[in-house]
Amino acid sequence: KYQDLLVVTAGTTLGMMLTDGIAVLLGDRIAGRVQHRYIRLAAAIFFFLFGCASLYEAYRLAPGLSRGLLF
Question: What pLDDT was estimated at residue 64?
Fold first, then answer.
């Protein structure tokens, strides 16, 4: 599907560097205004929610699980 491995690798690397840079800059500004414990709490909540969403999708898409064949 992707013919040029170098171009794809360079594009994904640059995209990740750009988004990581933005996250670091915004995180630095937020960290100066918000207590660290609230940042950790928000991160933990998001981590938990994304984990629950991933488990739900895995359960929903796995053959046999949604019909109760394994339980």
Answer: 64
